[in-house]
Design brief:
Blueprint lengths: L23 H8 L8 H9 L10 H16 L6 E9 L6 E14 L4 E4 L4 E3 L3 E5 L1
Antiparallel strand pairs: 1-2, 1-5, 2-3, 3-4
């Protein structure tokens, strides 16, 4: 080592009496690299998120589903209780997920082809996969 620092090399480290020492975690954060790729982790999380594809009903299942919708329509005045499994398309990527809800059906709107529950939930008839009465 060079001899030009010999006068200070063995001096004790200065510790302030008026200011507290910075915690190591905060001190390390000063020297941490900045996030050069902002949003990269979010993009990775989004690409890793799984979605299901919408299944198509066979003719027999579609006929059975139409019959159950007809039965609901016939008993609509009593606000029948049922369980409905339907497909919800994903807003960000192709595919979606299947959701099952239960409740009383208030109305079947033929013009917009929607099943309307008493709580206000609207389910498109074309997205319904299963109805349990």
């Amino acid at each position: 080592m060079s001899e030009q620092y010999n006068d200070i090399i063995h001096m004790p480290h200065h510790v302030s009496v008026s200011r507290p020492q910075m915690p190591r975690r905060h001190r390390a954060a000063q020297f941490a690299p900045f996030a050069a790729l902002t949003g990269y982790e979010d993009a990775l999380d989004e690409s890793g998120r799984r979605t299901d594809s919408k299944a198509e009903l066979c003719d027999d299942d579609a006929a059975e589903l139409n019959e159950k919708i007809r039965l609901l329509g016939a008993r609509i005045a009593a606000e029948p209780y049922c369980e409905v499994t339907y497909f919800v398309p994903d807003k960000r990527k192709s595919g979606g997920r299947y959701v099952t809800v239960t409740g009383n059906v208030r109305f079947i709107e033929e013009a917009s082809r929607q099943l309307i529950f008493c709580g206000g939930l609207r389910i498109p008839l074309d997205d319904i996969m299963k109805i349990s009465l």
